[in-house]
Design a protein that fits this description.
By secondary structure, the protein is mostly helical. The chain is built from 4 helices and no strands.
């Protein structure tokens, strides 16, 4: 497995967990997920900048 594959898998897993936490079934852009999750989860709020960086890399 390449580093790119590992990154994409991790990104997909983060996105899945954010959707699960927010109880969303429809597609929502990653940045929108972060904004919504920041309102409910202090851990996401703390790492929002890092997660946005991952979104930029994706």
């Amino acid at each position: 497995m390449t580093n790119a594959d590992r990154f994409l898998d991790a990104y997909a897993q983060i996105e899945h967990e954010l959707k699960k936490e927010l109880n969303l079934k429809r597609h929502v852009r990653f940045y929108e997920l972060l904004d919504l999750a920041c309102k409910k989860n202090p851990v996401v709020r703390r790492y929002k900048f890092d997660l946005q960086e991952y979104g930029d890399l994706r």
